[in-house]
Amino acid sequence: MRKFVIALAAAGSALVVAAPASAQYAPQPYGNAYGYRNGNFGQVRALQARIDAVERQIRFLDRRNVVRDDRADRFRAEANQIEHRLHRAARNGLSGYEAREINNRIARLEQRVQYSVARNGGYRRY
């Protein structure tokens, strides 16, 4: 009887010690800020790279006085809005709709910047 009580006490203490450790387990959420949730690996990074390229081009055009200051400021503001939208949408992974919408907004901004360059006579040489 004594062996049985000791074995029962040992098993009970093992369960008591293991219970808090098992209660701490929680599965990690699926997805992250880089758009890996919906199987679109790296799509957020690619869109961010396009936004960065447009911002660099706007900076270059503004420095060379190809685009007027007020128009460059509007282009910068629009690029910042698109970037903010991208970061908000990427928190839970981009859906197909969100990716297309952001892609179209970037394409329109790129087109408007190029149109502004063409309208002002292209790159001026000094």
Architecture overview:
Helix content is 71%, strand content 0%. It has 126 residues and is mostly helical. The protein has one domain. Helix 3 (69-90) runs antiparallel to helix 4 (96-119). The protein is rod-shaped, with a radius of gyration of 28 Å. The model has no long low-confidence stretch (mean pLDDT 79).
How many E strands?
A: 0
Query: Strand percentage, roughly?
Result: under 5%
Total number of helical segments?
4
Parts with pLDDT < 50 across at least 5 consecutive residues: none
Largest sheet: none
Q: Please trace the helix and strand order, writing H or E for each element.
A: HHHH
Mean model confidence by pLDDT: 79
* Rg value: 28 Å
Could you estimate the helical fraction of the residues in percent?
over 70%
Shape: rod-shaped
When the domains are counted, the total is: 1
Q: Structural class, from secondary structure content?
A: mainly alpha
The N- and C-terminal alpha carbons lie at a distance of: 102 Å
What's a quick, concise take on this entry?
This protein is mainly α and 126 residues long. It has four helices and no strands. α3 runs antiparallel to α4.
